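User: Just a sanity check before I run the rest of the batch. Below are the structure tokens for the first item. I only need the designed sequence back.
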């Protein structure tokens, strides 16, 4: 069980419900950023494999078999892609013979895979959420029906203390009653026991318990992020509040929409709202770009105020 920071993503979700929108806080999330250095071990393998899926693609499929299409994406990118096919043991899965007909112009291979998975979702998968992809523990891109991907869950704890903190709002300042103070101290000598301040706000609004405020955040998240995957929507994922954190047991594609990938830069996360649902997309990480080759190019000297002019006699210049 891991403990990660959900502050940025939860703040975005809360702002969306209050009417501010999801796209406005994205710039703040990008400025906050995440470490762009390569994570050790498995995270490095995930990052490397996902980088391969950032290759731009322009392609048109004309009723091609789904298996052939995914094979094409795999060979094009060299990424480790693990499709969950329908077979004798799994009624829920991708149909290898499903025809795919679509056109993609200058999209990443990951976006192309999402387009293919969306078209491959049949009418029966509508109630289970359709198809998507997620990262496996060993770094492969696993794709298939959400109902089957949800069988692999992990537990993470997201601290939300900063979202539960409420700054008191004292809109009525205490009054100073100098007359009563002077009357009580009129006999000389010091030490009157009466305070010169009177609290004009006798009845303050009672602050709600933290657990109740945390439940509101949970309600917002379960309504925006994969509603059908939570137990309240008939799924198997759970989210509970405990001692300043939210404990989430869910598959990887749900965690990705809650907090993104900690090993992927925040500037490469694209957040959007489509028909009341929150989607987190991944774009290319330009900080990982490498120069393929440096080439020496001869440059003629500029003499006499022009390029390519013959050198002056005697070799001067």
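Assistant: Here's the designed sequence for the first item:
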């Amino acid at each position: 069980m891991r403990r990660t920071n959900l502050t940025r993503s939860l703040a975005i979700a809360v702002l969306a419900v209050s009417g501010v929108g999801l796209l406005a806080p994205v710039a703040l999330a990008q400025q906050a950023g995440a470490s762009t250095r390569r994570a050790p071990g498995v995270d490095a393998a995930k990052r490397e494999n996902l980088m391969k899926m950032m290759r731009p693609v322009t392609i048109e499929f004309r009723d091609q078999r789904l298996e052939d299409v995914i094979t094409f994406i795999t060979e094009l990118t060299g990424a480790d892609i693990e499709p969950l096919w329908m077979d004798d043991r799994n009624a829920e899965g991708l149909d290898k013979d499903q025809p795919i007909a679509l056109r993609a112009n200058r999209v990443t291979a990951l976006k192309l895979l999402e387009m293919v998975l969306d078209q491959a979702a049949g009418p029966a998968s509508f109630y289970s959420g359709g198809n998507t992809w997620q990262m496996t523990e060993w770094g492969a891109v696993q794709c298939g029906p959400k109902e089957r991907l949800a069988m692999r869950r992990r537990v993470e704890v997201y601290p939300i203390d900063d979202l539960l903190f409420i700054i008191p709002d004292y809109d009525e300042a205490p009054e100073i009653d100098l007359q009563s103070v002077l009357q009580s101290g009129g006999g000389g000598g010091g030490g009157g026991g009466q305070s010169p301040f009177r609290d004009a706000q006798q009845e303050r609004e009672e602050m709600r318990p933290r657990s109740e405020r945390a439940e509101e955040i949970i309600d917002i998240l379960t309504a925006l992020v994969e509603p059908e995957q939570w137990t309240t929507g008939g799924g198997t994922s759970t989210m509970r509040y405990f001692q300043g954190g939210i404990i989430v047991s869910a598959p990887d594609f749900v965690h990705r929409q809650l907090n993104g990938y900690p090993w992927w830069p925040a500037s490469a996360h694209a957040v959007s709202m489509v028909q009341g649902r929150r989607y987190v997309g991944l774009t290319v990480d330009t900080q990982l770009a490498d120069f393929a080759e440096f080439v020496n190019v001869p440059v003629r000297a500029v003499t006499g105020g022009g390029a390519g002019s013959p050198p002056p006699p005697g070799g001067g210049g």
